[in-house]
Structures are given as C-alpha cells and as structure tokens.
Amino acid sequence: MKTIDRYIIRKFLGTFFFTLIVLIFIVIIFDISEKIDDFLSHDTPLSEIVFDYYLNFIPYFVNLFSYLLTFIAVIFFTSQMASRSEIVAILSSGISFRRMLFPYVFSAMVLGLLSFILTNFVIPYTNRSMLEFENKYVRNEKTSSDMNVHKQISPGTFIYLENFNLNTKTGYKFSLEHFNNRELTFKLMADKITYDSVNGRWKLEHYFYRTIDSLNEVLVKGRTMDTLLPIKPRDFVEDIEEVKIMGYTQLREHIAKKLLRGDPDVQAFQVKKYERWAFPFATLILTMIAVAVSSRKVRGGIGFHLGLGLALTFIYILFMQISAVFGAYGNVPPYIAVWIPNILFGIIAVVMIRLAPK
User: What is the CA radius of gyration of the chain?
Assistant: First the structure.
C-alpha cells in the first residue's frame, strides 16, 4: 500500500466518520425534541434514555444511512482533490486511473463489511432494547389480530383459525387435521382455543375429535381439554417489522418454519434475508459512481458533483425499494428482485468509470 493509497483511505474514512458523527448529533437532537413530551409524561429515567434507547439507536442509524453517507463522503473529498488538481497530478505521475481506484474499493469494502456485520449480528440485538423502550415510554403496543389463519405446524399436520387475537391469546373456530399419505387420519375441532402462558398449553372449549383408521372411526366430544401444540400465539399474528430483531441464524430458521407452515407472507421475510447480503454491495457501487462523477474538474465544483450524485443515489434507493416490493408481494423471486438494482447500477458504475477522464 503506497502513500497515495493511505492518503485516499484516510480522506475517505475520515470524511465518512466525521459526517456520520455530525449527522448523529443532529438527528438525536431532533429526536429528543420530538419525544421530550413522552419522556416527561412517563418520568423516563435519564439512564434508560441514554443507554437503553440512544446508545442502541446509533448502530441502527449508522447502517440506515451508511450508503448515502459513503456517497456524500466520496463526492466531497474527491471533488476537492479534483478542484486542487490533485487527481491530475496523480495520473500524471504514472499511476493509472484503475490503480487509483484501489483505495476507494478497499475503503468501500471495509464499510460494506461493517454494514453486513451490523445488520446481521449487532442491530437485531440493539433493536430489542430500543423497541422495548419505545413500547414502554413512547407508544402503546398495538392490538394484533388476524382472520382465516391457515398453517402447517408439522409435516402432514395443518391447523385453521377463523379469528385470532394476540392480546387475549384467544382464537375461534379452530380445527386441526393430520394426513398420512394424503389420507385424513385425525381431525380435531373446537369453538374456542386459548393459550395458557403459565403451563404452555392450549385450552380447547366445546371440542370434538375424530380418529380414522381405515374403516374404523372413533368420535370423542367434550367441553374443555388442555393440549400441547408446536405453535405459540406470536406465530399466528406476525409483523414484518419483527425481522429487525432477528439475527443471521434466527431469520433463516424463521423462514424455514414459515415455508413449512405455508405462510403467505414468507416472501417478504425472504426479501429481508437477501437484502442483508445485497445492500452492503450498494456501498461499493455508489463509491464507484461517486468517483466517476466527481473525479473531473468542472466549473460547478462540489455543488454540481453533489447535485448530480445525489440524484443518481436517490434513483438507486427508490429503485431498490420498488424492486423489494415486487419481490415481497409480486411474482418476482425475492433473490432476483433484491439483486436487480445492484446488477443494473453496477453496470452503470462500470460504464461511468470507463467514460471518466483519465
């Protein structure tokens, strides 16, 4: 690694973290001004505000804006280098434009790796404390219910609920069916089902079940019955936002469980899984676009570079969001929907680098 490499890396990472620190302080000040009434009305302890909320808020914020801040940092210091004719001097000394990209690519890969680690192994755990704090002092937990729930809870075993309320842990018009080689061997029905969180059992009211063995059938009726089921109340009513508190392994296990149950919203969770791999690459792609845009000395200076670059960045981010929606709720496979923006803008970045003045 040469002196010029260390110089560019220091400029890149220094500008990035300086911009990040300044922006964090600004956002925290605005967030405090917005939530100060909630803090005062709940007599929130200062220690919980600092350590349970804002300390856990910082990793989430860093990862959320890392792509945009990376782009701004590259635009800012590269435009300054171009305006001071430093890039001309670098290229005139015999260093090729492709060789000059090495410290940019290295720094972008470091930030991309940091984003991947934060997304999969740090933020899910910091988000738990942050969300618990918000539910306790900022907002009330929402009432959750769902209608016409169909799930496969184990191979060949299916359940149905006409209605389920998460707050009361109660469901109505429950049925459970077990199939062996596509033949019905057991069926259980109940008017009401309630979860007892103390002993981890489900209480069935006004039930009957039928056991089928070839031509022999046994029918049993009763008023109440306690039973164990391999499912919890939270599994009936889910929110895609819950993916924020799932680590790398937890998210994959959750998706495998949802695929087994045949949940219709599994694609939305798959999109979130692939995004955790695809989004760190946005750091590298935006870095290449930023270098191509800002490496040329123009009359507009940093303002022109920043305006053009931000326009491309917002188009990129908008395209990623639209593509993710098609992956979650459309007919596009999730992994394709997530990677399309990276592939398309990766090609744009390569073309812009080839056209950049050398």
Answer: 27
Mean pLDDT of 23-36: 91
231 vs 106: CA distance, rounded Å: 46
Burial class of residue 73 (count of CB atoms within 10 Å of its CB; 0-12, 13-18, 19+): buried
User: Is the distance from CB of 70 to CB of 11 less than 8 angstroms?
Assistant: no
Digit-coded pLDDT (tens) for 228-277: 888 888 777 666 678 888 998 999 998 988 888 777 778 889 999 999 99
Mean pLDDT score, 158-173: 89
| pLDDT number for residue 334 | 93
Which of 153, 201, 158 minimizes the C-alpha distance to 176?
A: 158
H-only helix segments in the chain: 3-41, 46-47, 55-83, 86-92, 97-100, 102-117, 123-133, 233-236, 248-261, 266-294, 301-329, 334-355
Domain-wise residue ranges, the chain = 3-139+267-355, 145-236
| CA pair distance 85, 90, nearest whole angstrom | 9
pLDDT at res. 238: 67
What is the value of pTM for the model shown?
A: 0.78
CA-to-CA dists, residue 336 to 145, 278, 286, 333, 341, angstroms = 32, 11, 20, 5, 9
Tokens of 344: 């398309």
